[in-house]
Amino acid sequence: MSVVLITAPPAVEPVALADILSACRQTAGVDDARLLALALAARRRIEEALGLCMISTGVTERRDAWAPVDARGGLTLARGPLLSVDAVATANSLMAFQTVDPGYYVPLIGSWPGQIGPSGLSFIQPTARGNGLRIDYHAGYGATPDLVPAPLKEAVLALTAYAYDREAEEPPLSVAEPWISAWRKARL
């Protein structure tokens, strides 16, 4: 089981108010707060669907163990691209966490989905019955909007405009599909 918590939301949004106003064919001042709220919801929806973060975001992921691992023995994280791993900790049977020495794992910076590979040492498994592994990391393309790929920004604008024009609370993700299809995870 995996639990993903956003611990530090992005400091800025990937699209500026001016771009949102343009996409929605509006002028400043009338519905700015609503448009910004729709853009925030659109970003979150796209990030959740694709398993990524656009702007640097702090994430805490809780798992039962260092599993499942890929063929190389690495652990795939819920969000990417991986910017940094801040800490890894395992819990004992009393749910007391102890930080794992970084020598036991290798963060694969830039990987999407984010991955932590094995070092030459074996992973230290938690002894807690559940959620005994905690990984604190940052994911995203960077701290500024100019680092976010343009198609992802266009997807946010498309969903925002659709929701605004149709007063839809939850527009279909298919509206943004032309821009996000390249980021979809292949399923075999």
Characteristic terms for this protein:
188 residues, alpha+beta, Hypothetical protein yqbg, 2 domains, five-stranded antiparallel sheet, three-stranded antiparallel sheet, 4 helices, 8 strands, elongated
Return the average pLDDT rounded to an integer: 89
Radius of gyration (CA) equals: 19 Å
Mind summarizing the main beta sheet? Answer: 5 strands, antiparallel
Strand order of the largest sheet: 1-2-8-4-5
Q: Please estimate the helix content.
A: 25-40%
Could you characterize the architecture of this molecule?
The chain has 188 residues and is α+β, with helices and mostly antiparallel strands. The protein is built from 4 helices and 8 strands; from the N terminus they run E-H-H-E-E-E-E-E-E-E-H-H. The protein has a 5-stranded antiparallel β-sheet with strand order 1-2-8-4-5, with no helix packed on it. Strand 4 and strand 5 form a beta hairpin. Helix 2 packs across helix 3 (150-166).
Topology summary:
Elements: E1 2-8, H1 17-23, H2 32-50, E2 57-63, E3 75-76, E4 82-91, E5 97-99, E6 105-108, E7 115-118, E8 133-139, H3 150-166, H4 177-180
Antiparallel strand pairs: 1-2, 2-8, 3-7, 4-5, 4-8, 6-7
Helix pairs in contact: 2-3
Brief overview, please?
This protein is an alpha+beta fold. It has helices spanning 17-23, 32-50, 150-166, 177-180, and strands at residues 2-8, 57-63, 75-76, 82-91, 97-99, 105-108, 115-118, 133-139.
